[in-house]
Amino acid sequence: MTKHYMDRYLSNQAFYKIQSQSMIDNPDQRIVDDLNSFTGTALSFTVTIFDAVIDLISFSNILFSIYPPLFAVLFVYSIGGTVISIYLGKNLVSLNFMQEKKEADFRYGLVRVRENAESIAFYSGEANEMQLLLQRFTSAFKNMSKLLICSRNVDFFTSWYIYLVQILPAAVVAPMYFSGKIGFGVINQSTSAFNHILDDFSLIVYEIQAISAFAAVINRLGEFDDLLDRSKSECHSDPSEGISLIYSNVKSLPEPESNGSIPIQKQQKLVDIEHLTVETPSGTALVRNLSLVINKNEHLLVTGPSGSGKTSLLRAMCGLWSTGKGKIIFYVKDGEDNQPSISSGAVVLEVDTGSDKCGELGRPSNRNYEGIFFLPQKPYMVLGTLRQQLLYPTWAEDAISTADGTKPTGSLPFLKQAPKSEHTSEKPSKPTTEDLIQVLEDVRLGNLLSRFSSLDTSNDWSSVLSLGEQQRLAFARLLLSKPKLVLLDESTSALDEANEAHLYQQVEKAGITYISVGHRRTLYDFHKKNLLISTVDPSSAEHNWSIESIDREASCNL
Ligand SMILES: Nc1ncnc2c1ncn2[C@@H]1O[C@H](COP(=O)(O)OP(=O)(O)OP(=O)(O)O)[C@@H](O)[C@H]1O
């Protein structure tokens, strides 16, 4: 079940939507704790119910042969007890639900302190953190107090219910004993049979607390399950709604000129954006009616005021946001197998649409295999060795290792990677150790090997490397993956100008076309076109962007 849920959580970018739109709380706790409770309790309930059925069959006969009216008393008693315990415990389900949430919130608060230890220490924010954590803890504590009061009431009743049962059967059969119809031993016999059967009928009374906790777990898992299903069905929804991403496996060939030749520049179209309007998930327009073609090596710089929607444009290009309209066509795949067929001078394009590629995972399972790479401003450092950092995210097989760095032993079927979807393109071949060392040199991080002794040293890389070093490491990943197109979101913001220039030269040398977002003047030196996005004016329907060529020499002189 854990693997099943993780598969769906990591498909269709469900984890991203859940986090960015705050759809449900603590999905991690649902996967770890709720699944654990669900499977454990489901198993123990099954065994308990099975036990109860066997017990009921064995003792009903005895009780019925002693005195049939005892059965009627038993029914009335157990039904009455069940109704009262359900009434007393009616708040237990919601209180258990909230307890799980509040404890998970508290734990998450502590995890955030650990993850942001340095920033908090720089801010000297200990007192504030303590306050925030105490608020979360107090909230969990208050809910626990309500839960305890409710459980206490249920417990009082359950105890009373259990004690009364000791005298009830004896009281019912006592008149028969005194009238001499039954012997003294039969009283004991009837008490024992009565207790057994009552235990079976009173499952709800005895287990009301466990049942309410189980119901809360089912609610939380059900909510999560629905969300994951919805995320999958959204991927298969009408592709005409929202922004369409199209991955073409042929290069777009324009109409040949009168002499039959096709201009070289036009053959190298990489991205074609048609009438694109990008909106936030809440529906605010950020970029209006953008039409743009990016050819190979025609590096584009996206600039504009803070909050104008530069990163959001990249989000739309990566398929993270589909709110808005228009088309983004990528011509980044090699077209050897699918040469366009030309008939009567017309060019027929063969394209794979995003929806065709949906398969199990909706959007392409790994955009990197499609020849597109993304570098964020704050690089993500995986938990693991330096080698795993470099191989991430294109080659992830080696990531299966335990916290102490050892490989898990034994055959665990769920550790096997999922079979590759037939639509998924081939990965580039895996780099050798020499390639990894070379790429570290290329991004001027060769000193890491002497600092950390080898490529297989594990560390908390986001703490031990400076932000600039992390950004260079991210460029090393890019150079290893050799995509056709890379989207750089202020990914050199922490670097000095010399390192920034060096990295851009390396990327250009590798033949990778880049689209950068940034504010720094130095960036103009490495780009050929500038897309300027201005803040949308809600009162006007005009588009809010302009494109101009960058005169490299002029920008160098600036
Ligand atoms: N998940 C979201 N839901 C709603 N609005 C969002 C969301 N994420 C970002 N926004 C809003 O969208 C707008 C554009 O954000 P974006 O990150 O694209 O700006 P930007 O131009 O890259 O800014 P900066 O230069 O400061 O990085 C901002 O006003 C931001 O508050």
Sheet with the most strands: spatial strand order: 9-12-13-4-14-15
Q: How many domains, as an integer?
A: 2
Helix fraction bin: 40-55%
Shape descriptor: elongated
What about the largest sheet? 6 strands, mixed
- CATH fold-level name of the largest domain: Rossmann fold
Number of helices: 18
The overall strand count is 15
CATH superfamily of the largest domain: P-loop containing nucleotide triphosphate hydrolases
Average of per-residue pLDDT values? 82
Q: Can you list the ligands bound to this structure?
A: adenosine-5'-triphosphate
Question: Distance between termini?
Answer: 60 Å
Q: Which CATH architecture of the largest domain?
A: 3-Layer(aba) Sandwich
Low-confidence stretches: 336-365, 399-403, 420-424
Percentage of β-strand residues = 5-15%
Quickly name the level 1 CATH class of the largest domain.
Alpha Beta
Q: Specify the structural class.
A: alpha/beta
Radius of gyration: 33 Å
Domain ABC transmembrane type-1: 1-213
Region (Disordered): 403-433
Keywords: ATP-binding, Membrane, Nucleotide-binding, Transmembrane, Transmembrane helix, Transport
Protein name: ABC transporter D family member 2
Task: Provide structural commentary.
With 558 residues, the chain is an alpha/beta fold. It folds into two domains: 2-235, ABC transporter type 1, transmembrane domain (ABC transporter transmembrane region fold), CATH 1.20.1560; 244-254 and 261-398 and 428-557, Rossmann fold, CATH 3.40.50.300. 51% of the residues lie in helices and 13% in strands. It is built from 18 helices and 15 strands. A six-stranded mixed beta sheet has the order 9-12-13-4-14-15, with helices on both faces. It has a five-stranded mixed beta sheet with strand order 3-2-5-1-8. α17 (497-509) links the parallel β12 and β13. α13 crosses α16. The chain is elongated. The protein starts with a helix and ends with a helix. The relative contact order is 0.10. Mean pLDDT is 82; it is low at 336-365, 399-403 and 420-424. Adenosine-5'-triphosphate is lined by residues 20, 280-282, 286, 304, 306-312. Adenosine-5'-triphosphate binds at residues 20, 280-282, 286, 304, 306-312. Keywords: ATP-binding, Membrane, Nucleotide-binding, Transmembrane, Transmembrane helix, Transport. One of its GO terms (molecular function) is ATP binding.
